[in-house]
Amino acid sequence: MDSQSGKLAVILHADVAGSTQLVHQDEHLAHERFQQAFNRFGEHIKRYQGRVLELRGDALIAEFERASDAVSATLSFQLDHAEFVSCLDDDLKPAIRVGVALGEVVIADGTVTGAGVILAQRVEQLSDAGGVCISSAVHEALPRRMPFDLANLGEHDLKGFDDSVRVYRVRPKPGVPIPPPKAGIRSKPPQISRFSLGLVIVVVLAILVSILYFVFPDDPPEEPALTSRMAHPLPDKPSIVVLPFSNFSDDANQEYFADGMTEDLITDLSKISGLFVIARNSSFSFKDRQVKVRQVAEELGVRYVLEGSVRRAGNQVRINAQLIDATTGGHVWADRYDGTYDDVFALQDRMTAKIISALSLQLSPQDEAQLLKSDTASPKAYDEFLKGWELRWRINRESYARAEQHFKKALEYDPEYARAHAGLALLYMQIWQQDWHQDSGLQSAGWHRAQLHLEAAMSNPDSLTHSLRSTLELFKGRHEKAISEARQAVALNPGSAEGHLVLAEALSYSGEHMEAIYNVELAQRLDPNLPGTYLVVEGRALFDRGAYQGALRTLDKALQAIPDDTQSLIYQIAAYGHLGDTDYAGLALNQLNNLLKSDNLPPFTLSALRNRLPYKSQEALQHLRDGLIKGGVPER
Q: How far, in Å, are 25, 58, 251 from residue 30 at the CA level?
């Protein structure tokens, strides 16, 4: 195993600006030009006493001992490259952008990582095509005699760094040549005494400590999380949150791909019975936020934090990931996965296997079977599914209409794709529940279409499929079947917050209130940052048990999380009605009617409950109706 501890160095990170567009023009020629450019860049780096650490696809990483060498090598290459591309007869002329930063570099298992690499990459993204940007630490390290024009671009908040970083653009001074490399290779150092050697070591260490102090005065690699400050006790098994992977593609429209890779990794890990995995909703609440690993761990109550990035250029895919033990602040592992989009499933499997190995997890036969399960061999179908799935999270008519088209496109590539069928079933069910099937522009949306696609998805069922089937069975009045389907969903994916919520729904409407509340609490622990939906179900279960005060407290919290939730208000009216508090019942009814009016819907009446609350017991439904009548809700 090739590994080395972190060291401080001047890091150069370069990539091809607009590589996606160039690949679309001519994929083979584009990658050939990228390789040619970086090979020439590598020669300049070597001449200036640098070392290429990694050269793959459309990115290059190198290290130097001196900031002046890194900048000189870059400017020398950029002048040479500009002349080279000017002689090309076609329009496929890759422009290289470069970032240079001072920081730690770690080489582990053949992978180059570290804060310095990430900082150089962030700085590079601020550079113009064909230009170079440097961090303030590199700027301070440059001798003032160097013939460079330095433009202060101000301070920037860079993702993954708590403190803003001042960035400078560097250009050669007009008419002044780039400083040449130092002549010759370093000669063998003269023999020195032990005393002199010791003195040199002391001086070097003092310099390094000073540099680290001034560059990173308050920013240790990772500040450990304290279990005493965690919002939730650590589970009795390994616990992890997968933060949304950053989209490092040149194309911002590839965000859906980075999100999809993150969500699929969460889903795969959630299938492992010996691992506690934070749900997608709470994980994605940290998207585009500058947060420390310690903060994430303490807020969610987990030990491990996984973070990473995804870059996609044409058919090439690169995934970077690192696993951090938040309780120690140490990196458990960091790795990079490169391949083509045609191999995307293999890339996902390799990363999942690495996490399992790093956490020393013992898989049960069922765990192994679930992880080996695959429902399509078509990368094109998978890509269309991810596009639709990303739109599914934007709960509005327009996004659902677009998601429908992507799921249908996925089925054109693979008619047996169960997840695409399940995606359509989910859309149509939610459309029916929201009354969007009328005048929505969606084709054949509604209950019937949901059932058809759900049956097709059952050819290769997963946790989502069983959850959807549970909901359908519930609204058909088949409560025992609904509970059975929900239990299968949880069995297939023990870490699925949605699975536990669906089970709680089926149990609640079936009169199993205590078990329903238990499953709600499990779902809330898996998804602690978005409790609104779970609180609605818990509040309803408490109301059905006659615990009106507890129901009101829970429903108040639900409305704080989801202010426009009509079901919470309906049960609040009924709870106040049973308690004889007609004033508060009236306030809740007015709030409900104002929400309905904003959606161009008529005021709430008892007749609106028909077919919307699938109680097994008519007595339970009448209990709700009685409370609403006491709360002042009219019959029609």
A: 8, 10, 16
